[in-house]
Amino acid sequence: MLKHITLALSALVFTSLVWAHQPPLEVQHGFVRAVPPTSEVSAAFMQLHNPHDRPVRLVHATSPASEVVELHTHTQVDGVMQMRRIDAIEVPAQGVTHLQPGGLHLMLIGLKQPLRRDQQVEIQLELEDGSLIELSLPVRPVEGGHRHQH
Asked: Which residues constitute the signal peptide according to the record (predicted)?
């Protein structure tokens, strides 16, 4: 019995050490949408890569550039696309979740100052396990002419 408990604790410690040496998520292709100077909202987009064998959940985000950051998605209701706040964004084990126009994204609400093209916006992601990921994302227009109203 003691041997099984020791093995279980060893596995837990090993898992924690691996997690500590490899980031819980890898963030790629991130940017904040350029908006007119009078806009009070913007959105952040990125790809979240999970290199681990278990899912990872993004549950909160903050930024000094805005009063609030919310996790959002788009859903179709009676033929009309609507944005909805959600509680979490899951990144599957060994998978990728895309935050993109017309889909999952981060809403920056109550911008504290106008965003300038190519400036860097700091965003902090909080995962369900309490891990924090610090990002510095460039401000740029959405490519491909997507019309994504907020």
From this structure: 1-20
The CATH number that applies at residue 32 is 2.60.40.1890
Taking CA atoms, 32 is separated from 18, 21, 54, 134, 140, in Å, by: 31, 28, 28, 14, 6
Could you tell me the mean pLDDT of each successive run of 10 residues in the chain, 150 residues long?
Answer: 45 45 88 96 98 96 98 86 93 97 96 95 97 97 58
